[in-house]
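Lab channel / #folding
Pinned by the channel admin:
"Please post every new chain as: sequence first, then the structure tokens as a reply. Keep commentary short and put observations after the output so the thread stays searchable."

First post following the new format, from NK:
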Amino acid sequence: MKCRLLFLLAIFVSWLPVLAIQKPLFMLYHKELAEGCTVADWLRVVYHGLKLDGTIAGYLTVIPLLFIIASVWLPDKYLRKGLKVYFGTAAALIAIIFAADVALYTFWGFRLDATVFFYIQYPSGAMASIEEGLIIRQALFVIVYAFATAWFFNRGVLRLLPATPVKQRVGGTLLLIVAGGLLFLPIRGSVTTSSANVGMVYFSNKQFLNHAAINPAFSLTASLFKQLDFATQFQFFPEEKRMEIVETLHATSYHAEMFCDETLHATSLLNTKRPDILLVILESFSANTIEVLGGTPGVTPHLNKLSEEGVLFTNIYANSFRTDRALVSVLNGYLAQPTTSIMKYPAKTQSLPSISQSLIKEGYVAEMLYGGDINYTNMQSYFFGSGYSKITADHHFPLTNRLSKWGANDDITFNYLYESLLEKDPDVPLFSTFLTLSSHEPFEVPFYRLDHPYLNSVAFTDSCIGNFIDKIKQTPVWDNLLVIFVADHGFRYPETLKEYEPLRYHIPILWVGGAVKQPARIETIASQSDLAATLLGQLGIPHGEFTFSKDILNPRQPAFAFYTYSNGFGFVDSTGVSAFDNEGERPLLQSPQEGSPDRLEKGKALLQTLYQDLGNR
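Reply from TO:
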């Protein structure tokens, strides 16, 4: 029995270096982020990461424990064959998870979590962002890493398996079960009231070092369990305290009837209450690329020009970093979640109020245009569930027009949009939603003006916008048309931006068209989720059910913005900005320090309220 116990211990201990080596490999892969890290930093990453490596090693030792218990009763040859298959399978899974994680971190800025399962349901769309060379490189890495790990266990560790029979089978079985119970300690990660969690490996004020210490297999599995009960997550405050804080974020004298009271508006932006509405959601359009918003000069000359004749909202922040979450923020006025996407749950999204449903009640028809795969991330069910009667997607265009990895480029779809607007019924108001795609990674566009791939793709879409507006202005459609440009999310440009910094989420909202009364600049701090209440307020349509959307033009409404990133949030108001990491349970940014406790309280209360609402839908 002693030999079997030592063999079990050897399996657990042998997994630790296999998992620990991922830390320096991760840092080498992202060497530009690891630049400036000392040898001590590298060692601390490995040391602190061992906490979660031990948890995964414990889980990976459970199956061998069952084999060893079985060996007390079964012949040795079955045990060896079973363990060989297990070690090979486990090695492959660990390799695949790490290879996917280390590559996706480049795009996402956080370690692998359950988000990946949402996107791999739609492989064509998921693969469109990834270069073929990266796929080949990661596949080769999986083969090498998995083979080396399997060889290590099958040729090294498995040799330690004792061949001697057990005389006291019942006693031996009980002893092994008790010993197996000790695996509960590394699996749980602690002997205190807290259990293993991603935040327990955080040790530095440099977020990259904290991320490097995370075991991706643990991050992935832990996030899967967190999807189960949203209402119990992020319980920062007792209910009475939460309600008290959230009330300060509502308009004074708050009640539902206020939302259709025109007297609340300091500014009426439109010259009509029932314009045709074209909502253009711009893929990855960061304000950092738009000169009139303080961005890089020369990238978006057409949007810059249009901002002089329309209504430009200058202090708008995206609620998230992914399109699926952004669509719900824009079209439903619902805040994005830092650990999940409500679009994964059609039953929940169908319970949300939406701009389209509110307009349909007023006699509008709702149409959707997207040049890519409309089935990607449940979009088709989402739009049909929101009342859109016509959806145009990639399969409606000839194959010759779908040369982009994502589908039809923006020049094709803008031309289609122009033709469809000319054919609309003049007696029926239209709400048309158009999601662009050309400025999505890998930024391959039929256009070359700028060297930087991302900036060049933004410039391409901007040129399509200019061409479209120039043409539609020459038609009668323009006179009653309201065109709203809003980005779905920003982009990490310049590359030095941290994932939690507000500039990462700063985006444009611009209203133009014949329905716009006069040019204006609105400098109120707000989120993209506030577009719903603001638009409906301008149309005189009640919007009290949009509980997370506020009318930007309501002078009684506190001005603030809320954004989320991977298990964290940011809160921006007139006092500054605070960003909080839920995993590490600590602020990442407080600028200025003065006022930060108040900002953090409001952000926490808002996040707690959001998850209560999400869980109850």
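NK: DSSP finds 22 helices and 13 strands in the chain.
TO: also worth noting, Residues 254-264 have pLDDT under 50 and may be disordered.
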